[in-house]
């Protein structure tokens, strides 16, 4: 079947097939899957609810633990967390926990369930800079605790990388919008097109709010010096945002070179194939044994016919021809392409935020900065950089603020 | 998370929700009942307490299970009898449970061999603090023919023993019925005449679940032999529902208070028992398979069901489905409904064709090239077997037609259900 960029690649379970998958679950004691979920989404409990045909109860478990449950269901690298821990691996293959979670959150949406409740107002206000996953989860937890929440987003739409980065076939915008609307309905106010340091200052936010959370993420593409000002080169961040904003209606030449081996690079390569680019070559610094991209993304990319060359680092560029050298053995390759997309990482831009970052992270553990009113979360906080970790950090920064401000 | 009042009154006792452990291995001591209470069960029917002179002596192993394809525990066979602890130990556990959980419901299941036993057991469990008594007239695997289902099929004995229990205790009392009988009505009526306040139904069904084919012995094998014993679990649910429905539609028993038992493991099962007339529910087999935790989803799911049905009190649901169960001769036999086959959804497995040919009326034709079925309405009787076997929901209820010579408004016929779309 021909797949398109604007169609979700994975078609999802039906009622019959989800019951068959849930029936495979061993309903373990002290379930390892639940212990392995960074966001404590509690898969053991929601799968048990599915198993006993309590779909609404399953939805409550997911939603109350994870404000972005429908998003995590689609993008979480479950093979590194819950599914890696699954005891069913001792028999055959792990339970498709992400797939079951997606079925349940789709059910929740169709049943028009309204699970989250705003807490009684405690009169305190928190400003959140950035509306990516961590900012959204922090907003939700704070609203549940009775805080008023203002979110400041520099783009025209909320969601950060969820909206502008992860491709439509993997995470439809409708899903992201639905999750964000849920948080808006809970009482969050989002101020769009507002960059702190330009339209508003951090000092002003600290005056108008009881606490400020910096959830700015690593939103800027990293550039390698040799590619600067190269006319054929576009960053992955710019490319993915351009394709997603235009819902796949963009023109791309027939031969594209991708450089990078993380999930973003896989997203770029797969997007190119879904846009019917015949020749997509991805050259990766890491060898397959040390690959950064999730196995699921790597396999999907390979299945689509992307040529992946591992272990090579760019050495020089001449117009549209890049020369790579192998990192370990003596060898080099040259790739000529009509377009070059650079997916070699992202950096945080903390200008005007009085924040010192080292390797795009704050140089301390936890969430409170040296300024007692200012907190950090998401990718700039120390720790993993996945959406599920962003969710957990969002919950934790909200708890930290609640402990500091004593909102109860 | 949803929170609705699941409480219900039964025989004058208030239950915080309808879910109780049934008298069985799952409620055999203080620690088990404590854990069940802590995990959300409203009541416990403590494992049947017998007279001191009856010595419980169990076999090993003592269980078997019936599987179908990849599904284990479709049904469960159990040879265990009544509580193996001493009378003094059991009574001490009852006392401690009531002291530690005064708001929970503690039901003492008892079983005697004669009137004096029944009276004495009723007296001592009342003294120990039980809120209610259940008479076990129905265990099918007792080693004494003066006990269990041999008693429960005899109305005269049942009446006599119920009266004996009432002599020993003023507590509300329910008599637990055996399904190993054609009509439960006479036994239930005899129990009520003897003083029972309500009925618990059903106990287990006499069974042989499997045979070891090499050894040519039933399972479980006890030193080369086996016995008939009680069968429970999901497979007996239809039998339990039938008995409960028939009790509630027996003249004079329309308001009979019932504690429903038989294969309950989901909130949907629970709702079915309630809709046919059960006020409280008792569970064992699914607890043995999955643990006390299953009560969480039963409670939560039942709350959501009440919300969907706009019902504030669980008691408003009791018995609602009885009115639409009528004698077979009273059903509307004037119409038939054809299958509607969606060729886009069809994956070409041909299961509908096989079932229609081999199990119905040869009304489906099979195109070997396109691998798609077509319905010949001349032969189709509207049985919908094809609809039931389709693995992808490609067959739904289609056109409703009156049978030749019958009159009626086909648009007024109610055909749809949660099973057949």
Can you describe this structure?
The complex is a heterodimer of chains A (408) and B (421). By secondary structure, chain A is an alpha/beta fold. Chain A has three domains: 15-110, Fumarate Reductase Iron-sulfur Protein, Chain B, domain 2 (Orthogonal Bundle), CATH 1.10.1060; 125-219 and 348-405, FAD/NAD(P)-binding domain (3-Layer(bba) Sandwich), CATH 3.50.50; 221-345, 3-Layer(bba) Sandwich (FAD/NAD(P)-binding domain), CATH 3.50.50.60. Chain A has 15 helices and 15 strands. In chain A, strands 3-2-1-4-15 form a five-stranded parallel sheet, with helices on both faces. In chain A, helix 1 (15-24) packs across helix 3 (43-51), helix 3 runs antiparallel to helix 4 and helix 3 (43-51) packs across helix 7. The relative contact order of chain A is 0.14. The mean pLDDT of chain A is 95. Chain B is 29% helix and 22% strand. Chain B is built from twelve helices and 20 strands. In chain B, the strands form six sheets. An eight-stranded parallel barrel of chain B has the order 3-4-7-8-9-10-15-16, surrounded by eight helices. A four-stranded antiparallel sheet of chain B has the order 5-6-14-11, with no helix packed on it. In chain B, strands 1-2 form a two-stranded antiparallel sheet. In chain B, strand 5 and strand 6 (71-78) form a beta hairpin. Classes of the chains: A alpha/beta (408), B alpha/beta (421). Chain A binds chain B through residues 14, 16, 23, 27, 48-49, 52-54, 56-57, 60, 64, 115, and chain B through 1-2, 70-71, 265-268, 290, 293-294, 296-298, 300-301, 304, 391-393.
Q: Please work out how many helical segments of chain A DSSP would assign.
A: 15
The chain pair with the largest interface is: A-B, 14 and 20 residues
Helical fraction of chain B: 25-40%
Low-confidence stretches of chain B: none
* CATH class group of the largest domain in chain B: Alpha Beta
| Spatial strand order of the main sheet of chain A | 3-2-1-4-15
Total strands of chain B: the figure is: 20
Q: What is the element string of chain A, with H for helices and E for strands?
A: HHHHHHHEHEHHEHEEEHEHEHEEEEEEEH
- Largest beta-sheet characterization of chain B: 8 strands, parallel, barrel
Q: What would you say the CATH architecture of the largest domain in chain A is?
A: 3-Layer(bba) Sandwich
Note poorly predicted spans of chain A.
Answer: none
Q: What is the domain tally of chain B?
A: 2
CATH architecture label of the largest domain in chain B? Alpha-Beta Barrel
Distance between the termini of chain B: 30 Å
Helix fraction of chain A? 25-40%
Outline of chain B:
globular
If you average the pLDDT of chain A, what whole number results?
95
User: The CATH topology of the largest domain in chain A, please?
Assistant: FAD/NAD(P)-binding domain
Number of strands of chain A: 15
Roughly how many Å is the radius of gyration of chain B? 24 Å
The name of the CATH topology of the largest domain in chain B is TIM Barrel
């Amino acid at each position: 079947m021909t797949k398109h960029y604007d169609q979700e690649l994975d078609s999802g379970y039906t009622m019959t097939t989800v019951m068959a998958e849930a029936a495979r679950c061993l309903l373990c004691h002290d379930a390892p899957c639940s212990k392995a979920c960074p966001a404590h989404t509690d898969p053991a409990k929601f799968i048990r609810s599915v198993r006993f045909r309590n779909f609404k109860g399953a939805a409550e478990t997911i939603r109350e633990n994870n404000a972005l449950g429908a998003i995590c269901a689609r993008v979480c690298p479950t093979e590194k967390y819950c599914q890696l821990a699954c005891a069913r691996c001792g028999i055959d293959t792990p339970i498709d926990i992400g797939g079951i979670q997606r079925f349940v959150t789709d059910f929740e949406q169709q049943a028009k369930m309204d699970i989250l409740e705003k807490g009684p107002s405690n009169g305190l206000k928190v400003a959140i800079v950035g509306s990516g996953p961590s900012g959204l989860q922090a907003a939700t937890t704070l609203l549940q605790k009775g805080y008023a929440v203002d979110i400041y987003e520099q783009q025209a739409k909320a969601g950060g990388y969820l909206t502008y980065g992860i491709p439509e076939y993997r995470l439809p915008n409708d899903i992201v919008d639905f999750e964000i609307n849920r948080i808006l309905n809970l009482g969050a106010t989002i101020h769009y097109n507002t960059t702190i340091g330009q339209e508003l200052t951090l000092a002003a936010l600290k005056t108008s709010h009881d606490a400020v959370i910096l959830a700015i993420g690593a939103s800027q593409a990293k550039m390698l010096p040799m590619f600067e000002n190269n006319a054929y080169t576009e960053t992955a961040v710019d490319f993915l945002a351009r394709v997603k904003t235009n819902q796949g209606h963009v023109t791309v030449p027939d031969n594209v070179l991708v450089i990078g081996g993380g999930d973003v690079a896989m997203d770029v390569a797969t997007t190119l194939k879904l846009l019917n680019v015949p020749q997509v070559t991805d050259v990766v610094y890491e060898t397959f044994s040390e690959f950064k991209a999730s196995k699921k993304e790597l396999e999907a990319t390979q299945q689509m016919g992307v040529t992946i060359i591992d272990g090579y680092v760019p050495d020089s560029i001449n117009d549209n021809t890049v020369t790579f050298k192998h990192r370990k053995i003596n060898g080099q390759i040259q790739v000529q392409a009509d377009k070059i997309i650079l997916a070699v990482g992202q950096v945080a831009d903390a200008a005007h935020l009085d924040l010192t970052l080292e390797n795009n992270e704050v140089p301390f553990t936890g969430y409170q900065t040296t300024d007692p009113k200012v907190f950090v979360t998401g990718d700039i906080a120390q720790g993993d950089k996945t959406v599920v970790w962003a969710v957990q950090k969002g919950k934790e920064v909200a708890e930290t603020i609640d402990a500091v401000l004593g909102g109860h | 998370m949803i929170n609705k009042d699941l409480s219900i009154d039964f025989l004058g006792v208030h239950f915080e929700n309808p879910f109780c452990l049934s008298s069985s291995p799952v409620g055999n001591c203080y620690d088990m009942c404590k854990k069940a209470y802590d995990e959300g069960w409203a009541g416990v029917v403590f494992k049947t307490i017998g007279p001191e002179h009856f010595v419980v002596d169990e076999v090993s192993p003592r269980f078997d299970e019936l599987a179908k394809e990849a599904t284990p525990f479709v049904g469960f066979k159990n040879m265990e009898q009544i509580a193996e602890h001493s009378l003094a130990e059991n009574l001490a556990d009852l006392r401690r449970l009531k002291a530690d959980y005064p708001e929970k419901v503690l039901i003492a299941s008892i079983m005697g061999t004669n009137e004096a036993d029944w009276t004495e057991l009723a007296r001592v469990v009342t003294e120990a603090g039980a809120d209610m008594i259940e008479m076990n007239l129905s265990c099918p695997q007792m080693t004494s023919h003066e006990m269990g289902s041999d008693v429960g099929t005899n109305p005269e004995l049942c009446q006599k023993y119920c009266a004996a229990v009432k002599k020993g205790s003023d507590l509300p009392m329910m008599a637990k019925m055996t399904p190993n009988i054609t009509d439960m009505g006479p036994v239930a009526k005899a129990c009520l005449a003897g003083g029972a306040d309500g009925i618990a139904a059903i106990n287990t069904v006499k069974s042989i679940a499997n045979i070891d084919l090499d050894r040519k012995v039933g399972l479980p094998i006890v030193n080369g032999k086996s016995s008939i014993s009680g069968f429970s679990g999901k497979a007996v649910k239809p039998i339990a529902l039938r008995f409960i429905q028939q009790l509630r539609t027996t003249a004079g028993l329309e308001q009979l208070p019932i504690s429903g038992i038989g294969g309950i493991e989901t909130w949907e099962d629970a709702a079915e028992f309630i809709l046919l007339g059960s006020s409280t529910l008792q569970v064992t087999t699914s607890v043995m398979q999955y643990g006390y935790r299953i009560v969480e989803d039963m409670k939560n799911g039942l709350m959501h069901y009440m919300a969907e049905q706009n019902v504030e009190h669980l008691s408003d649901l009791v018995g609602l489905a009885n009115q639409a169960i009528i004698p077979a001769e009273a059903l509307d036999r004037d119409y038939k409904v054809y299958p509607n086959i969606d060729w886009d959804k069809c994956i070409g497995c041909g299961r509908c064709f096989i079932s229609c040919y081999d199990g119905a009326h040869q009304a489906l034709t099979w195109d070997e090239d396109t691998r798609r079925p077509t319905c010949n309405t001349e032969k189709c009787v509207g049985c919908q077997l094809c609809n039931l076997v389709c693995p992808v929901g490609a067959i739904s209820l289609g056109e409703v037609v009156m049978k030749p010579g019958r009159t009626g408004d086909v648009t007024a016929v109610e055909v749809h259900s949660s099973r057949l779309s």
